[in-house]
Write a structure and sequence with these properties.
There is one protein chain. With about 350 residues, this protein is of the alpha+beta class. The chain folds into two domains: about 1-80 and about 210-355, ApbE-like domains (T-fold, Roll); about 85-180, T-fold (Orthogonal Bundle). Helices cover about 25% and strands about 25% of the residues. It has helices spanning about 65-85, 90-95, 115-130, 140, 155-165, 195-210, 300-315, 315-325, 345-350; strands spanning about 1-5, 15-20, 45-50, 55-60, 110, 170-175, 180, 215-220, 220-225, 235-240, 250-255, 260-265, 270, 275, 290-300, 330-335, 340-345, 350-355. Strands 3-4-8-9-12-15-16-17 form an eight-stranded antiparallel sheet. The longest helix has 18 residues, at about 65-85. Mean pLDDT is about 85; it is low at about 5-40.
Length: about 350
């Protein structure tokens, strides 16, 4: 929770990921830069749809095959049917509601698909890495909050306190395709990592189709496939604080990498002059309140970027920098409450940043 002044509300939006390559696609993603540089990409084709509770936009630069875009969107649909916490036909929903086949007639163990097992395993990795600051068993808590309905309801304190008792990644284990939920109330929310994983799967699909130059944008999870056909890197911008959302303070040049952001601006509501955002503290059941308001992670895989963006936000600036600095080929920029930018070690040596005058 954050106390804010009304005149600062719009400043909370400043870390929206901006894909300079997305203009000219017919549907401009909020926050996407529409600079003149994009008008040169006349040979690209783009498809944008509302999926995964966000705008999914995919641009191909070296292919005119519309069927490839259709296939990429089908990849989104496939994984939503696996990872959605709320869709009653999804595999995760069935696991949380104990509707999947049991393993060896065990009461608490269930057989899951390779895809669900893989993502649960990655979620557990980040849960352990953060010592529970990131916890995929947060579903009892996250199911109480709704940041998109417009109703601005803060859940009952007693219900939050009860839900927190059932959040503990140590009550979840996975061996092969067998998931064991040690408590009846243990349920899983993969929302903090699923988009990154799906972006990686879309990239795999595009590469199999012979695409070597593309931009995947899953509502702020930006994943670049190669470079533009002429070898020029893609450009991803950091929006300028206290300015129009199309005004950037810096542009990063990105080749074949992922850029993922998390922050209090993504999904939130304001009630009684307090901002409630969607990044929840597993230990309290309420939104994290620390010195970070936004994180951006640059990594090879979007799954890692997704997991690390939430993990580092939860850890706070000092521990977040320590974590990123300990990882190979991973870089980050953090925005603190004083609106200062803090870069990880090696950022400028490995990521070219062009400042905007």
């Amino acid at each position: 929770m954050h106390k804010i002044k009304k005149q600062k509300i719009f400043a909370l939006l400043f870390m929206l990921i901006l894909s300079v390559s997305l203009s000219g696609c017919g549907l401009n993603v909020p926050g996407s830069d529409t600079s003149e540089d994009n008008s040169k990409d006349n040979d690209s084709i783009t498809k944008s749809e509302f999926k995964l509770n966000t705008i999914v936009s995919i641009t191909l630069y070296d292919s005119k095959d519309e069927s490839i875009l259709e296939g990429a969107m089908a990849v989104c649909d496939k994984y939503e049917q696996i990872y959605s916490r709320t869709l009653e036909t999804s595999e995760l929903y069935k696991l949380n509601n104990r509707q999947l086949p049991s393993a060896d007639n065990s009461k608490n163990s269930y057989v899951v698909s390779d895809e669900l097992a893989d993502l649960i395993g990655k979620g557990l990795y980040y849960s352990k890495l953060s010592s529970g600051s990131f916890d995929i068993t947060i579903a009892p808590v996250s199911s109480l909050w709704n940041f998109t309905s417009g109703e601005k309801i803060v859940p009952d304190a007693d219900k939050i306190a009860e839900a927190v008792k059932h959040v503990n990644y140590k009550n979840l284990t996975i061996e092969g395709n067998v998931v064991t939920l040690k408590e009846d109330a243990t349920t899983i929310d993969l929302g903090a990592i699923a988009k990154g994983y799906i972006a990686d799967r879309i990239k795999e699909y595009l590469l199999k189709q012979g695409v070597k130059s593309a931009m995947i944008n899953l509502g702020g999870n930006v994943l670049c496939v190669g470079t533009k056909p002429d070898g020029i890197p893609f450009k991803v911008g950091i929006q300028k604080p206290f300015a129009d959302r199309n005004e950037t303070t810096a542009i990063m040049e990105i080749s074949d990498l992922s850029v993922v952001s998390s922050g209090i601006y993504e999904r939130y509501f304001i009630k009684d002059d307090t901002l409630y955002h969607h990044i929840l503290d597993p230990s309290t059941g309420y939104p994290y309140k620390n010195n970070i308001i936004a994180t951006t992670i640059i990594s090879k895989y979007s799954t890692d970027g997704d997991g690390l963006s939430t993990t580092t936000f939860a850890l706070g600036l000092d521990k977040a920098l320590d974590l990123i600095n300990s990882l190979d080929d991973t870089y980050a920029v953090f925005i603190t409450e004083d609106y200062q930018l803090h870069y990880s070690e090696g950022f400028f040596e490995n990521i070219k940043v062009v400042e905007v005058e």
